[in-house]
Design goal:
Blueprint: H1 14-18, H2 22-28, H3 40-50, H4 56-69, E1 73-75, H5 91-111, H6 115-119, H7 122-143, E2 146-147, E3 164-165, H8 167-186, H9 204-222, H10 227-239, E4 252-254, H11 266-269, E5 279-281, H12 283-291, H13 296-300, H14 308-316, H15 323-326, E6 329-333, E7 339-344, H16 370-373, E8 379-380, E9 389-390, E10 430-433, H17 435-448, H18 452-476, H19 501-506, H20 517-531, H21 536-546, H22 585-595, H23 607-612
Antiparallel strand pairs: 1-5, 2-3, 4-10, 6-7, 8-9
Helix pairs in contact: 3-5, 3-7, 4-21, 5-7, 7-8, 7-9, 8-9, 9-10, 17-18, 17-20, 18-20, 20-21
Length: 629
């Protein structure tokens, strides 16, 4: 078995570990109770194996809510008060537990060793803590306090009812752990086997940069509470001898395994279920990207179904095509009135295949947007009236950047035409922390310090890196139309990044680092939002803490809805309703009381509560759409 290079051998220590490996011991036909000798490297490998902030339920439930609330995406049924309906999933709140249990296992194992031998495994411990801090930040963003310092210790004499830690205290703890990790990674005589490390191939210098850069995620979350502390963290990051993530090679980008012989294919390919089918990119967002020829639109969104063959099929049957598509078509008309496709206008392929969804309230009832909802008119059959096919006009999210199976390539074809593309699973690569994100944070803090020159340097570098990182991910994940057009439509173009495109993009009026200080700061935040297009939580937190998109903006404005004022848009998730038979009942209730939270379950009546009762890091942050404070 080849899961994460040494998966089975990771299943070696303690109840918390063995319970998660039962299926694999069944495959081995070996009694798991007979396996007693722990190994630090294998525990680390298993922690990496379960590390994943974006599971299926997160994408299916959490992501659409966050996209809709910060107005970076739109329900395909249109913006209505339905977006205020919340769903309790718990998925985001609990994912840090997956790695924390292995941290505890290794802590216990090292406590049984002589001091000198235990010290050799400190780098494994620190690496696992870095991963856990990453997921801990992710959990506190939407739920506030979490059980952490006392959690996952029951197997080693600890409590089964751990206390909750405040967000403020956790930030302080995590900063200490990250600083310790940096020192550990820089210390000599560490046992750290490269074959057990799919994250950095045993490169402890890269791990140190990871830990140092992760501190910036805490820094930006501290801005509404302690700006001086946030700036101090940034100063430490930029002056640290280990450096920070500043290039493609530094980025935390990896896949967990290329092959697998067990039933758990999610490790290699991510899951196989669909998600975000009822959510589309916002029209104003895609328009902004297209107007500035931003190549990332091709990596974050899918081409719509209207290639030139489909356009011609509609013309052949005398059918009307969407006006916003036809404005990009050059065609001729013969004496009988029949149209013939000649070429794409404007920027041409692939740019003309991307269209966002309208953001106006109740757009379904607006005539100017009728084509988005005229589903019967988006279908045609062959000349005999058979083989009817549907053609989506707007651009859906690029699922293949998130999962490596289920969404196989399907080329839109005219009725009667067939393009055979073999289905295959693709090992999935994820980017967890990139140089673009780091440089955008540094640009933000440089502007806060009034250093516009430094801000420009960081900003320009970040934009180039963001495009390059997305292009690299698109290639590694083999998304549709990357490197091939499938030989169906002669007017089709690949989506690969081309020479000169980054330079052209950065000359766009909305992208160039020009204007007043306020306009420059807005551009930094908008680029953070665009860089996080496929990272819903990070995008949501950025929007929440910054107040962008800003109401009335000339670059990317937030829509104002009478029926959904900004003070009704949630700023966290429901807590769920604890039941009295839960051993943690009193602890949970005390935690909610401490944070000022009203316990709530899924529903449509909690929006005001979830707006007003904020997590600690969100208190004092600007209102939705208010812009930088």
């Amino acid at each position: 078995m080849k899961l994460n290079k040494s998966f089975l051998a990771a299943c070696v220590l303690g109840t918390t570990l063995l319970s998660g490996c039962a299926d694999d011991f069944a495959d081995m036909n070996q009694d798991k109770s007979a396996v007693t000798n722990p190994n630090a490297g294998y525990l680390f490998a298993q922690a990496v194996n379960v590390f994943d902030p974006s599971g299926y339920t997160y994408w299916f439930y959490n992501a659409p809510m966050m996209y809709n609330w910060n107005q970076m995406a739109v329900p395909t049924g249109g913006m209505t008060t339905a977006i205020l309906t919340t769903t309790v999933t718990g998925d985001q709140e609990d994912r840090y537990i997956n790695t924390l249990r292995y941290v505890r296992d290794l802590e216990n194992y090292r406590s049984t060793l002589p001091e000198e031998e235990s010290a050799q495994y400190a780098a494994y411990q620190s690496a696992m803590e870095v991963l856990t801090v990453y997921l801990g930040i992710f959990a506190t963003d939407m739920y506030g306090n979490i059980a952490y310092t006392e959690a996952c210790r029951a197997a080693y004499g600890g409590t089964i009812t751990p206390a909750y830690d405040s967000v403020e205290s956790l930030y302080e703890l995590w900063l200490q752990q990250l600083n310790t990790a940096i020192s550990t990674f820089e210390s000599p005589n560490q046992t750290f086997v490269s074959s057990q490390d799919v994250v950095a191939n045993g490169d402890l210098k890269k791990w140190a940069k990871f830990a140092n850069s992760l501190k910036l995620r805490i820094a930006v979350r501290l801005l509404a509470q302690n700006q001086s502390k946030a700036k101090q963290i940034v100063s430490e990051v930029t002056s640290a001898s280990c450096g920070y993530i500043d290039s493609m090679n530094d980025a935390i980008l990896f896949n967990k395994a290329l092959t697998i012989s067990t039933d758990n294919k999610d490790v290699v390919y991510h899951w196989s279920n669909g998600f975000l089918d009822g959510t589309a990119g916002r029209q104003q967002v895609l328009d902004l990207m297209l107007e500035n020829l931003d190549p990332r639109v091709r990596f974050c969104y899918r081409k719509n179904n209207w290639n030139s063959k489909i356009v011609q099929a509609y013309y052949d049957r005398g059918r009307e095509i969407p006006d916003f598509i036809e404005k990009n078509v050059e065609y001729t008309t013969d004496a009988s009135g029949k149209k013939t496709f000649v070429a794409w206008k404007g920027a041409g392929e692939p740019w003309v295949r991307y269209y966002g969804f309208p953001t106006e309230y109740n757009s379904q009832g607006m005539s100017k947007y009728s084509w988005y909802y005229r589903y019967n008119d988006q279908k045609i059959a062959d000349e005999s009236g058979q083989g009817e096919k549907s053609y989506i006009t707007y651009s859906q999210f690029q699922h293949q950047m998130v999962i490596g199976r289920y969404y196989n390539v399907s080329v839109p074809t005219a009725p009667g035409d067939v393009v055979s593309i073999p289905s295959k699973d693709r090992p999935w690569y994820g980017l967890y922390l990139g140089a673009a994100e780091v440089n955008l944070y540094l640009a933000e803090f440089a502007m806060r310090d009034g250093n516009e020159s430094a801000a420009k340097t960081y900003y320009d570098k970040a934009l180039a890196l963001s495009v390059q990182e997305y292009d690299k991910l698109a290639g590694l994940n083999e998304i549709a139309y990357y490197g091939t057009t499938y030989n169906y439509d002669p007017n089709e173009a690949v989506i690969d990044l081309k020479n000169g495109e980054i330079e052209t993009m950065m000359q766009g009026a909305a992208y160039a680092f020009t204007g007043t200080a306020a306009e420059k700061m807005e551009k930094i935040y908008i680029q953070q939002l665009l860089n996080f297009t496929l990272y819903p939580n990070e995008q949501y937190v950025t929007s929440r803490r910054s107040g962008y998109p800003k109401i009335g903006s000339n670059i990317l404005a937030r829509e104002v809805y009478t029926d959904m004022p900004v003070n009704m848009i949630p700023r966290r998730f429901d807590t769920g309703l604890p039941v009295e038979t839960d051993l943690m009942y009193s602890i949970k209730m005390a935690n909610y009381q401490e944070q000022g939270f009203t316990p709530t379950s899924s529903g449509s009546g909690n929006a005001k509560i979830l707006h007003d009762e904020r997590v600690w890091s969100d208190k004092n942050a600007p209102e939705w759409g208010a812009g930088h404070n």
